[in-house]
Structures are given as C-alpha cells and as structure tokens.
Amino acid sequence: VEVPSACVEGGVVRIGGSDIVMMAGPCTVETEKQLMTTAAAVRKEGAVILRGGAFKPSTSPYGFRGLGEEGLKLLAKARDEFGMAIITEVMTPTDVAMVCEYADILQIGTRNMQNYMLLDEVGRTRKPVVLKRGMSSTFEEWLLAAEYVLSQGNRNVILCERGIRTFEKTTRNTMDISAIPLIKRLSHLPIISDPSQGTGRRDLVGPMSLASIAAGTDGLLIEVHPNPDEALKDGAQSVTIEQFHDLMPQVHAVAAAI
Ligand code: PEP
C-alpha cells in the first residue's frame, strides 16, 4: 500500500515494504496547540504518518467524542505544515466522503470492524484503509471484514492488531503478538500494530512496539501526547514526547536486527 506524503523521498510512504512505518500522534485531536506540538515532535523523530481522532467511538457517551470536522481541519493543517500523511477514524458511511477530503488513510476502529455498510462504503473509495481487529473477532471474521473492502474494488487494506478482550483486567486489552506472523501466513495484506490500544498502558507501549517489530509488523500506530495526564481521552495509554524520543532508537535497533 502506498500513501502520499511530502516527507519521504519520492512522495510516497510504502506500507508493507521493507521499512517499519511509524504512525504517531494524539489519540484525539483536542486543540491546535496540542496537535501541532505533537506533530512537530513525532515528525522530528521519524514518524511519517500523523494519527489523530476527530470522530471518537467513546465507550461512555459522556466521554470526549472528538472535535468532528474541526478536528479534521486541524489535521489537514498539520499535514501542510509538517508534510505528513494523515490517518483518522471514520465511523459512519455518511461521513466517508467528508473524511476522505482530509485523510490520507481511513481508519476503521475495533467497534466497527463488522459494520458492513461502512466497510462497503470505504471499499468504494480508493483510499488506504486501516482495518482494526475487532476486540472479540476471530481471524476468519477479521479477514472476511477485509474482503468487504477488497470486494468493492479497494485493494488498499492494511490490517491492525490492537489487542483482544480476555479475562485479564490489568491491561485494557490483551495484545496478541502472534496475530502478526499468523496474518502474514493467512493473507497477503500488510499488518501494523497498535500497542497503545493493545495494552491501555503507556509503560507497555515500548516493549510491545519492539515485540511487534520482532514479530514482523509493517508499522506501528502509537498514541503520543505532550501531557498525557491532562489528555481528554486515553491519557493512560499515551506516551509522552520524551518517551517517544527514547523509544525510536530502540525501534531502529530491533528493526536492524531482524
Ligand atoms: C483509536 O485508535 O483511536 C481507537 C479508538 O482504536 P480502537 O478502535 O482500536 O479502539
């Protein structure tokens, strides 16, 4: 899958090639300052794709649900300023056309992995789609969800391991590292890994990133916040800018070793 981006030579980011593609940014776009500070920092460390939620699938209806189109506009501004490609979640079929105006990659979240109308609609676009693993889905269900997108003619599907629901409560989800090599056996599609949602804990994001690389991931999707303790959403799983800075040399070292 190739994604346009001004910050790499030739203007495209290749997901599923030989490089580990770093996608990083805030869980949710909160303010211009928060987004720009984070984008500048992750770009400097080598991230080429900026993540940020504008439409958030909040477990509680009383939680922050994102800035909507205003958040997309801020993401577009960050793209122009830092030359990064943008990944953001789309939650409903009716929002797909609008989100496509701003996003370089559409994200389908775990809760919507089996929203077939949404899968059909993103399948009718030609935008790359990151399809997160449903938190209680089997591999067969996940791959069939990918088929929904593919069968509409959109070949640009990237799978994302983001943890599954188990009996364990110490972590928010149980990160299933085995999904990475297994998907590579079962499918031709690239797979990336989201250790932030996958664990719900910022102290585990680093180790799970490195384990994902060792297991063969094509990229990492990491939540970064300038001040995670003040984050409006998912601060517990967002790493600080300093932690991201410290992680990157380790990412390069493990990638070089495999
Ligand atoms: C996210 O990445 O913002 C997100 C909500 O992820 P997931 O769908 O994996 O929970």
From TrEMBL:
Origin: domain of life: Bacteria
First and last residue of the signal peptide: none
Domain called DAHP synthetase I/KDSA: residue spans: 13-250
Keywords: Transferase
GO biological process terms on file: aromatic amino acid family biosynthetic process
UniProt GO MF annotations: aldehyde-lyase activity; transferase activity
Designated name of the protein: 3-deoxy-7-phosphoheptulonate synthase
Species the sequence originates in: Dictyobacter alpinus
